[in-house]
Amino acid sequence: ILKPLSGINAMTDAPSQTDLATRQDHDGFVTLTMNNPKRRNALSGDMMTALHTAFDEIADEQAVRCVILAANGPVFCAGHDLKEMQGITECDQHASLFNHCSELMMRIVSLPQPVIAQVHGMATAAGCQLVASCDLAVGADTAKFATPGVNIGLFCSTPMVALSRNIARKHAMRMLLTGDPIDAQMAFSMGLISDVVAGDDLENHTHTLAAGIAARSGMTVRLGKQAFYKQVEMPLNQAYSYASDVMTANMQKHDAREGIGAFVEKRHPSWRHE
Q: Is 179 helix (H, G, I), strand (E, B) or coil?
């Protein structure tokens, strides 16, 4: 059953009964769906608030061990709402909007649970940034990705941050300097997305991936995600020292002892997610 997120109102030009984001609970994971197809699921201030609020709620839910980020309509996400941006004239208002977006992206990275983008259609500008900020991304073979800000005189500087941390520099620069879209297969070969599937299989494939992650120890996955993003920015020797400390702490946890015992005894582990 889809349910609205508390306290979130739809944009003024969307149907009043439609919430900007909907949540569907599954066994061990949830699907969070951007739901403003009329505005191509643009990251308006209200949409970003809806998503950030949802992620904040999910972060504290131990029963949720993975999140799928999906979208309704033909476009995954068109980036910032240009009409909203055009109506803003003050510098501090623009700064607030872009900071809001950056905080949303960092919330995804800092979320204890892995987030999988389920991408169909176009993901452009901050929408491409959204995909790059997720831990995994499954793209339909018809999906396309672009950072086209250069075409309208507004370089995709904040999308550049996530993009350049996912793909090689020259690939990132080509996307940023030309604004040209790339297809799903190219995005996969560049490392922007982790899987490419036929459009008809997109939801099933993403659900299978999320369910597989949710079947693991939630404690282990949470610890591992946090450690990944911390070590990846460290010098090599510091990263190894940090990772050794993480593994030492991990070994003291119930699920590590249970998992090793189950492997040795050739049985299925019984996770307590702690």
A: coil
Where does residue 113 rank: exposed (0-12), middle (13-18), buried (19+ CB within 10 A)? buried
Q: Which residues of the chain have pLDDT under 70?
A: 1-18
Name, in order, each residue with C-beta under 8 angstroms of 256's C-beta and a sequence gap of 6 or more. 220, 250
- Tens digits of per-residue pLDDT, 150-160? 999 999 999 99
Name the DSSP class of 125: T
Query: CA-CA distance, 213 to 129, in Å (whole number)?
Result: 23
**Each residue's pLDDT tens digit, 30-76:** 999 999 999 999 999 999 999 999 999 999 999 999 999 999 999 99
- Distance from C-alpha of 64 to C-alpha of 61, rounded to nearest angstrom: 6
CA distances to 62, 133, 147 from 114, in Å: 13, 11, 24
Counting Cα atoms < 13 Å in the Cβ hemisphere of 259 gives 17
Beta strands in the chain (DSSP E): 2-4, 21-25, 29-34, 66-71, 115-119, 122-124, 136-140, 144-146, 182-183, 195-197
Start-to-end C-alpha separation, the chain: 29
* Predicted pLDDT at 68: 98
